[in-house]
Amino acid sequence: MFFFVIFLLDCGFFVKGIVDPMDVLKIFVRKRDTDMAIRYARIFPHSQLLLCNTMEAFGKRKELKHALKVFGALKDQLGGINMFACRSIIDICSHCGSSVQARIIFEGLLAEKITPNTHVFNSLMNANAHSMSYNFSVYKHMQKLGVRPDLASYNILLKTCCNAREFNTAQEIYEEMKKKEHDGILKLDVFTYSTMMKVFAEAKMWKMASNIKDDMRAVGARLNLVTWSSLINAYANSGLVDGAIEILEEMIRDGCQPTAPCFNIILTALVKSCQYDRAFRLFNSWIEFGIKVSLSLEQKGSLPDNFTFCEEHPGTNGGTILVVPFRPTVTTYNILMMACGTNDERAKSVMNEMKRNGLCPDRISWSILMDIYGTSKNRNGAIQALRRMQRVGIKLNVSAYTVAIKACVESKDLKLALHLFEEMKAHQLKPNMNCIDVRLHQILRYKFMFQVTYRTLLTARSKYGSLKEIQKCLAIYQEMRQAGYQAYDYYLKELIVEWSEGVLSSDGGNRNFYHLDRKDERNESFNLFLEKVARFLQKDVDQNQTVDVRGLSKVEARIVVLSTLRKIKEKHLLGRAVQDDLVIITGHEKTSYTDVETTATDVEHAITAVLTDELGLEVFVGPESRPPVSSKLRAPSRPRRPQGMIKITVNSLNHWLKRKSARDVQ
């Protein structure tokens, strides 16, 4: 049919009314046939409009590659760039989440000496609302080119400041806008006021938010649902719950119908301030009696026809008392579950009440329940909730698994935590920023991303005791680094130190030797240290029991040697006797660690000291196989020339293992 229509058009037949061109083009869009869509659109005299519509159709389907191809064809046909098409493709880039491509298109305009109009600038800034520095550079360039910003330009800048939490800058822009309004250049709209209200709400500046309300009434602008909600949020975020309730009542008197999110904001404020009982009392009062608001006859007469209320009672002074119903949502019950603290039975009853009211618990509900189970160290309850979540048809995501893993870690069940971690990966839940459940982040106040799953496992370092477990954790660590996420190196370093130093004494050995500090996480040499040690610990001791520490620093060499002894000890406990001497190769090279040059002599002395003084082992240095003097008795003025090798005899190792085993039994 399509080819027949094209044939008729090519032959010069008049086919208007037979088929709508966009109906045909939409079919090509569904088939992702860009070439055919371009060819078909070019047949018609209004091909520019058809190509723009085709480009937007691809954009709605988030097919950016095909939309860009249509945009290129549109440019070639016009012999230049159409501003409407350019604005449309930038909006499509924003819809597809590609702000970089939007910037490239804009830079292409500038390279061709084309001055974009205000609408193109606005679309570009809206696509980059997450980048304050870039948007303000675009705004300055806009002024430099003489393009006059309109109200939308300023509103987008306010939105950018709000996203960046730059409250002072937002205030400056708002003052500039008010001045332009006073001069008759701009006319502020509800979006402007709502954005500023949101800015002050997030900054907990309730007084400034209230001033915005006064500004609106001064110019005759009426507050809408978004503005009232932002104002309620400003009071609630500042801990002024009573003030937030008063704003809710004022909202009703103004004729704006409150919705469930307005009530949820107040309940969330109570939960954040740990006023759990009051949250339940307020919820029960709203459910049973609604919210009562006294209105004058004038206020009652100004209510819109679609305003919903369940009861009306006569009030004082000829007024009336209106009872506005409260209809809770799933989010409302989720907030109440948070108010249960560590009482898992109460949280479960809240979820059951949610079901009785015809609402279905969502992923957030189950995750909150699992988190409460984990906090109360009820691992079985958390796992049962996870499995129940699967049975009811809710697809598990990274956030849900993280909560379950956290519950296992808090119950000291590392084996099950690692099992869930592997199960999560088996379901192809890969590290991706799109795995964040924003609502769960807001409600549980946890940063539930994939790297938090790693951190949950790594921070449970005191739970690890065997070589197999430490190797699993190191594998997780290296997988995290390869996935491109920020490594929590501080916790891994503590984990390695506690595990390896465990061969010295029950209290974890000399941890001060390592100068553990969180600020070291950003140190490049610190990360290199972890990479070296991590690679070594994942290998088993070979049959000849030879350890090569050449090129390592004193700290690295100590970790490697102690880790080797830890491995030997664990194998001894499993019944594998030591049959060979342990040989440590130190070499004659120099190594550099934290910008301090260390010689092989220093490394050899450090290893000898820990072996002889702290472990009581008999060691021999160099090919002469003579025992060294204890480091405590060695004169510092007579340094021994490094021989490149330290040997611990099999008899000394077995004697040490027997003493160690006897001490552990005691």
UniProtKB/TrEMBL annotation:
TM helices/strands, residue ranges: none
Region (Disordered): 623-644
Signal sequence segment: 1-17
Domain PROP1-like PPR: from-to ranges: 54-179
One Pfam entry name: PPR_long
The PPR repeat ranges on this chain: 150-184, 189-223, 224-258, 362-396, 397-431
Coiled coil segments of this chain: none
InterPro entries listed in its UniProt record: PPR_rpt, PROP1-like_PPR_dom, TPR-like_helical_dom_sf
Record's keyword terms, sorted: Repeat, Signal, Transit peptide
Top-level lineage group: Eukaryota
PANTHER family: OS03G0856100 PROTEIN, OS12G0638900 PROTEIN
Protein name per UniProt: PROP1-like PPR domain-containing protein
Organism of provenance: Triticum aestivum
